[in-house]
Amino acid sequence: MKVWIDQSRCLNSRQCEETAPRVFSIADDSLAYVRQNGRLLDQPGGETCQADVPDEDQDAVDTAAYECPGQCIHVIEQP
Questions:
Q1: Which residue, 64, 77, 78, is CA-closest to 32?
Q2: pTM for the predicted model, two decimal places
Q3: InterPro entries per the record (predicted)?
């Protein structure tokens, strides 16, 4: 599974960071970004910054995507 955030739709609710803190983080620009191996993928952000989701975080990421008020979290299922 991969995940990315469309920052143009982010409402800064912080729900994603609370639900899956190892995968999501709010940056200095007050927008949510994905993390991979502890590193914030914020350059440039958006679809070009897709993070691999560890198996143990997949349920939390699915929950965060479903509950996101801006519907800006995009989950990509992989075979």
A1: 64
A2: 0.93
A3: Fe-S_cluster_ET
Strand, coil or helix: what is 19? helix
CATH number of 2-76: 3.30.70.20
Task: Report d(CA 20, CA 35) in Å as an integer.
Answer: 10
* Residue predicted with more confidence, 68 or 79: 68
Q: Which residue has the tokens 């997949």?
A: 58
Cα–Cα distance between 16 and 28 in angstroms, integer?
A: 16
Chain position carrying tokens 């691999």: 52
Q: Which of the 8 DSSP states describes residue 46? A: G
State the pLDDT at residue 9.
96
Query: Would you state the torsion angle of the CA atoms of residues 57, 50, 25, 70, taken in this order, to the nearest 10 degrees?
Result: -100
What are the domain boundaries of the chain?
2-76
